[in-house]
Specification:
Length: about 300
């Protein structure tokens, strides 16, 4: 198996066509077809379905595509690590952010990276936290912001912030508390719109509830922040979330947030990298920048509900 075969295969999948991939790669289509056939023969599996409309991945092809992407990225990182200097780091860095964090961190980080490290190409990917963990394990991400659920021992991790979860719903809603805060028991008794159990804030809510001898009652599960926000605006229920993902709505008065008490719910936000794949100079520089931008956002109040860890 050769690296060029991996590059060819990834290009074919990305472009959905042998002919388009051949044009982009500047390779004759018969040669591309031959390399693909050799790869399939070596693997003993068909990777692509071919039709007049183009190509689509088989189940084996989808699995191999993920591994091929990770291998090609690690090869590129290895080359970049040799060529880079610590004074002027350059190259590509891929950072994963959970949906509920990107609203606070993504734009300030991109702006800071362009100003501080113009020779680094920073690629941000926004995913559910479970997907980010798998991509970081496989090497498809250099860095990821994850929530410390006690299971991050497989990664190098640096605590960033402790973030408060708030009770959020429409102002004047039947779900809205009467006072300036709401107890966890009353919050859990409401109709709550939350991510599924393995995603986002849900594990932390479940853990805090169990510690207080409480349980969730009525839950509507929605994993998309955008859809969850729409459900809140439609007054289908309330949620327990950090303020950052819906900050614009709270500032506009279309949503309102109340502190949760007895007990409060917080989550630990952590910057993680692989223990097995060394960081390039560029990735290490972006890691330092993430911490710096986080400190600035907390100091200025532009990451509401967050306090620096430690």
């Amino acid at each position: 198996m050769e690296l060029r075969q991996l590059r060819y295969f990834v290009a074919i999948v990305d472009h959905g066509s042998l002919s388009r991939a051949a044009l982009v790669l500047h390779v004759a289509q018969p040669a591309l077809t031959q390399q693909l056939r050799q790869l399939e023969d070596e693997l003993g599996a068909r990777l692509l379905h071919r039709s007049a409309q183009g190509v689509t991945s088989t189940d084996a092809g989808k699995l191999f595509y993920q591994h091929a992407q990770a291998i090609l990225k690690q090869v590129a990182d290895a080359r970049a690590a040799v060529a880079q200097s610590t004074e002027r780091p350059s190259g590509s860095v891929t950072l994963g952010l959970p949906h509920s964090i990107s609203g606070a961190l993504a734009l300030p980080l991109l702006t800071a990276a362009r100003a501080r490290y113009p020779e680094i190409t920073l690629q941000l990917t926004e995913e559910i936290s479970g997907s980010l963990t798998e991509q970081l394990k496989s090497g498809r991400l250099n860095l990821a912001v994850l929530f410390d659920d006690g299971q991050l021992g497989q990664f190098n991790s640096v605590p960033l912030v402790e973030e408060d979860l708030m009770f959020i719903c429409r102002p004047g809603s039947a779900f809205a508390p009467a006072g300036p805060a709401i107890s966890l028991a009353d919050a859990l008794a409401s109709t709550l719109i939350l991510p599924a159990q393995q995603h986002g804030v849900r594990p932390r809510i479940e853990q805090t509830a169990r510690g207080a001898g409480l349980a969730l009652d009525k839950v509507i599960e929605i994993n998309s922040i955008a859809i969850l926000r729409s459900a809140l605006l439609a007054d289908i229920g309330a949620t327990l979330l950090p303020v950052a993902p819906v900050r614009a709505d709270i500032e506009a008065g279309t949503l309102a947030a109340w502190p949760v008490e007895h007990p409060a719910i917080t989550r630990s936000v952590t910057l993680c990298s692989s223990r097995n794949i060394p960081l390039t100079n560029a990735a290490a520089a972006i890691g330092r920048l993430v911490r710096q931008v986080t400190e600035e956002l907390c100091a200025s109040g532009h990451w509401p509900g967050a306090a620096l860890a430690g």
